[in-house]
Design brief:
Shape: globular
CATH architecture: Alpha-Beta Barrel
Strand order of the largest sheet: 1-2-3-4-5-6-7-8
CATH class: Alpha Beta
Number of helices: 12
Helix content: 40-55%
C-alpha cells in the first residue's frame, strides 16, 4: 500500500489484470510492477477471481487495486473487505458522485461502508476491530477516474474532497466523450488542466499507457504514476513478436 500512496509520486508503475488466472498477477509481480489494477470494469472477472488475485498480490508484496465496474457500494465494500489496497472508480464526473464514492470507501460516520472484520481486510477476525476500522478509513485508497470534459473541469473541486486519495485521467474515454481523436489538442489541453489542478491540490494523478515509451512520456509530462499495458496485451504482443520474427524465415525455408 505504501508504494501506491506514498511512492506514487516517484513514478510508480502498475499494470491492468484482465485474465482470471492468479498466475497472471504472480508473473506481473515477478516482472517488477509496483502495483496491479484488477479490472472488473472491462472484463468478465468475478469477485471470487478478484479475491484470489488480491491474495496473490499481497503475498508477493505488490499492492492490489481493483477497478470496480461502477459507483455501487456493494462491490466497493466487498473488494475492500477482500483486502484490496484501494479502488479505482470509473466515470466520476461530478463533485456529488465523488462524495458518494468516498462515502462508499469509508466507515461511519465518514461514510456508508459496513463493517466486515472477519474478512481478509480484518485478517479473518484476528485484527482488532479498531485497527480494521482505522485502516479502512485512513489507508484504503480511493482513486477517481476523470473521463469526461465535465469531470476535468471540476478537477479542483473533486480533489478538494477529503478522502479522494488520487486521480486518474482516462484519455481514451475522455476523447470519445468529446468526439475527438485521443491525441487531439483539446484532450491535451484538458489533461494539462487536470495535471495543474492535481499539483495544486497535492493529490497524485496518473494515467494509462499502452507502451513503455508512452509511459515514459507521461511521467516526463508530470503524471505521478502510470498503469502500463495489461496482462492480455503483454501476452498477445509477446506472442505476435515471436511469430513475426520467425514466420518469414520458416516460410523461406519451406519454400526452398
Amino acid at each position: 500500500m505504501a508504494r501506491v500512496r506514498d511512492g506514487i509520486n516517484g513514478g510508480t508503475l502498475g499494470t491492468w489484470i484482465k485474465l482470471s488466472s492468479p498466475e497472471s498477477v504472480e508473473i506481473m509481480a515477478y516482472a517488477g510492477f509496483d502495483f496491479v489494477v484488477i479490472d472488473l470494469e472491462h472484463t468478465t472477472l468475478n469477485l471470487g477471481a478478484a479475491s484470489t488475485h488480491i491474495a496473490m498480490a499481497r503475498a508477493l508484496g505488490v499492492d492490489p487495486l481493483v477497478r470496480v465496474p461502477d459507483h455501487g457500494l456493494s462491490v466497493i465494500q466487498r473488494v475492500l473487505d477482500a483486502g484490496a489496497a484501494g479502488v479505482v472508480v470509473p466515470h466520476v464526473d461530478t463533485v456529488q458522485q465523488a462524495r458518494a464514492v468516498v462515502r462508499a470507501t469509508c466507515f461511519p460516520p465518514r461514510g456508508d461502508r459496513g463493517s466486515g472484520g472477519t474478512s481478509r481486510a480484518g485478517r479473518w477476525g484476528l485484527l482488532p476491530r479498531a485497527d480494521y476500522l482505522e485502516y479502512g478509513n485512513e489507508q484504503a485508497l480511493c482513486v477517481v477516474q476523470l473521463e469526461s470534459e465535465e469531470a476535468i473541469r471540476k478537477t479542483r473541486e473533486i480533489l478538494a474532497l477529503d478522502g479522494v486519495g488520487a486521480a486518474f485521467v482516462g484519455t481514451a474515454d475522455l476523447s470519445m466523450s468529446m468526439g475527438v481523436a485521443a491525441g487531439s489538442d483539446e484532450v491535451d489541453r484538458l489533461a494539462t488542466s487536470a495535471l495543474t489542478a492535481a499539483a495544486a491540490a497535492g493529490v497524485p494523478i496518473g494515467t494509462a499507457s499502452a507502451t513503455s515509451d508512452q509511459a515514459r512520456a507521461a511521467l516526463a509530462r508530470g503524471y505521478d504514476y502510470v498503469v502500463v499495458s495489461n496482462d492480455t496485451s503483454i501476452l498477445a504482443s509477446g506472442g505476435r513478436a515471436i511469430v513475426n520474427a520467425l514466420k518469414a524465415p520458416v516460410a523461406e525455408r519451406v519454400g526452398r
